[in-house]
């Protein structure tokens, strides 16, 4: 408040309280941000929330009345508790192993310098972007009787599933932890070493506490990916080592028990929300650590007279040794997949690849036609995911001053992470139930070729957000304030500052969205028409048919799918033009 006094000789007017005028936001700015929020929310509501709610609701509504007795019925079955226990057990074990192996990998690939480090980083990323069907086929061909490791008799065991999950999620830990480790201010560790601390003690007391946010963030995401794994578990474990995700598929497609599927979907949703809450808090701590690290690296590192040379220390050598073993374990399934696809009747040849041009058994199209359909579908899904995910990242990157607004932004961010953890089977089947006359429109979207790319875009949007968001959040807010002070309108600031910097991550976002669309199997298996199957659906169909020729074609098709995915991601890595610290 401000006190005003009237002018006059020796007389003072009573103080008048004046409230400062509240600044009104321009109408165009309000409409612009409103549209940036409304478009993603509408997309998520129509193509995710509505199908999931309807699908789950069909399990709890009987004769038009709510019936929750399904919970007691489903949880009274020993099978349910076995499935839930296996899901949590495999996710926990795979997370612990991924972190235990990924932290040494992050140290070796992001803290040490050696020739070919960029190529090794790319190799580590390949398993994460591979379709889950390809990972399952690669491990199956390695462990099956007659395979290189068939003598271990691990085919169809819990150990095989665990190895495949670690293979798939190792890169999550390496990139999340390594991205922070690379940017940590080295002066604290150098000072500890200069004062006589051993490398292990310096790591345990200085670096590990600083890395804890990234480790927790990576661990929560790995747990989420493992708990909702579908294609890999279905191929390697079948019904013996099922998870909540595969059980929803079995109850829906084989037993037609929508009540059991609905109950399991709710259980999975509760687990996912809990994990996303932990991941969100860990990610916030990691971002604060990254900002501190970025501030520290701007200062010239402290130079000590006796800087310890840790490259030859047993701790560094152990980390390098563990990383080398993991890299070998990553390469073996991929190399074996290629080798097995070339084996024909005890010899070598390209027969399985030549057969890809002919219609597959029981399918009216060839594998190459399915590959073309996959690419076409992935292009459409990527465009949709970039538009929706880019708007979400733009909104979430804002840092409002009011606490209520900050909580709203955090909730908006978490909302769009849900598709990563909700059953793709539930989403796919929900599409079939709700898209016959969506919103009362006289159109059946179930026959539309756009339904599959929309379903794939729902899964790809979180990856786009997590790729673009760190770049937008890395922009110093003072730059926007300075531009506004100099007279630039908010739209011009957005166009000349945010968009050009965000473009650095667009290449990588395209790669991840495209790879996720190419490999999506859960929802696509419900939605793909018989005359337009995608490549993962075709691989799964070939595996399910008896005969060495069908199995050989499945291996060859998996190699094609893996090569296509790796090529797209490699190209995206080259186009990313210096992205700032990735966020998984």
UniProtKB/TrEMBL annotation:
Pfam families: BPD_transp_1 (PF00528). Belongs to the binding-protein-dependent transport system permease family. Residues 84-277, 371-572 form the ABC transmembrane type-1 domain. It is found in: Cell inner membrane; Cell membrane. SUPFAM superfamilies: MetI-like. InterPro entries: MetI-like, MetI-like_sf. PROSITE patterns: ABC_TM1. It is a multi-pass membrane protein. It comes from Cellulomonas alba. PANTHER family: INNER MEMBRANE ABC TRANSPORTER PERMEASE PROTEIN YDCV. The chain crosses the membrane at residues 30-50, 88-110, 122-144, 156-177, 214-238, 258-279, 315-339, 378-396, 408-433, 453-472, 505-528, 551-572. CDD domains: TM_PBP2. Keywords: Cell inner membrane, Cell membrane, Membrane, Transmembrane, Transmembrane helix, Transport. The keyword Cytoplasm does not apply. The keyword NAD does not apply. This is Iron ABC transporter permease.
């Amino acid at each position: 408040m401000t006190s005003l006094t009237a002018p006059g000789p020796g007389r003072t007017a009573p103080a008048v309280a004046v409230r400062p005028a509240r600044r009104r936001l321009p109408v165009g700015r309000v409409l612009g941000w409103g549209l940036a929020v409304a478009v993603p929310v509408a997309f998520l509501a129509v193509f995710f929330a509505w199908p999931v709610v309807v699908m789950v609701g069909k399990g709890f509504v009987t004769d038009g009345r709510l019936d929750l007795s399904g919970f007691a019925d489903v949880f009274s079955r020993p099978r349910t508790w076995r499935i839930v226990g296996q899901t949590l057990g495999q996710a926990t074990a795979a997370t612990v192993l991924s972190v235990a192996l990924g932290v040494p990998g992050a140290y070796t690939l992001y803290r040490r310098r050696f020739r070919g480090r960029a190529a090794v980083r790319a190799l580590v990323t390949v398993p994460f972007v591979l379709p889950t069907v390809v990972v399952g086929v690669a491990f199956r061909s390695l462990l099956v009787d007659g395979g290189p490791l068939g003598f271990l008799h691990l085919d169809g065991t819990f150990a095989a599933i665990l190895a495949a999950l670690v293979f798939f999620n190792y890169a999550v830990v390496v990139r999340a932890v390594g991205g922070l480790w690379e940017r940590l201010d080295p002066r604290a560790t150098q000072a500890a070493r200069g004062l006589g601390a051993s490398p292990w003690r310096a790591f345990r007391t200085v670096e590990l506490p600083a890395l804890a946010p990234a480790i927790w963030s990576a661990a929560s995401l790995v747990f989420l990916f493992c708990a909702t794994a579908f294609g890999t578990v279905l191929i390697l474990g079948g019904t013996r080592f099922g998870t909540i995700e595969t059980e929803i598929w079995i109850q829906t497609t084989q037993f037609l028990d929508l009540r059991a599927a609905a109950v399991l979907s709710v259980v999975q949703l509760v687990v996912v929300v809990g994990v996303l809450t932990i991941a969100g808090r860990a990610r916030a701590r990691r971002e604060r650590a990254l900002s501190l690290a970025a501030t520290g690296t701007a200062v010239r590192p402290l130079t000590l007279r006796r800087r310890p040379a840790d490259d030859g220390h047993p701790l560094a050598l152990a980390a390098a040794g563990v990383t080398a073993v993991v890299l070998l374990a990553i390469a073996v399934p991929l190399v074996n997949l290629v080798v097995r696809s070339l084996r024909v009747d005890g010899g070598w040849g390209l027969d399985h690849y030549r057969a890809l041009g002919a219609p597959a058994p029981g399918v009216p199209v060839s594998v190459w036609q399915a590959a073309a359909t996959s690419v076409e579908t992935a292009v459409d899904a990527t465009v949709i995911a970039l538009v929706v995910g880019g708007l979400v990242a733009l909104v979430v990157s804002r840092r409002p001053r009011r606490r209520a607004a900050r909580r709203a932004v955090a909730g908006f961010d978490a909302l769009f992470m849900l598709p990563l953890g909700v059953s793709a089977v539930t989403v796919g089947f929900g599409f079939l139930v709700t898209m016959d006359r969506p919103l009362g429109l006289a159109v059946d979207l179930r026959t539309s070729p756009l339904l599959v790319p929309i379903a794939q875009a729902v899964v790809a949007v979180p990856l786009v957000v997590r790729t673009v968001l760190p770049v937008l959040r890395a922009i110093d807010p003072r730059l926007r304030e300075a531009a506004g002070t100099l007279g630039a309108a908010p739209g011009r600031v957005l166009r000349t500052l945010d968009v050009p910097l965000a473009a650095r991550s667009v290449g990588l976002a395209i790669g991840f969205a495209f790879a996720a669309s190419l490999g999506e199997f859960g929802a696509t298996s419900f939605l793909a028409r018989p005359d337009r199957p995608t490549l993962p659906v075709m691989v799964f169909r070939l595996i399910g048919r008896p005969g060495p020729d069908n199995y050989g074609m499945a291996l060859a098709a998996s190699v094609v799918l893996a090569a296509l995915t790796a090529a797209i991601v490699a190209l995206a890595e080259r186009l990313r033009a210096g992205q700032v610290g990735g966020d998984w």
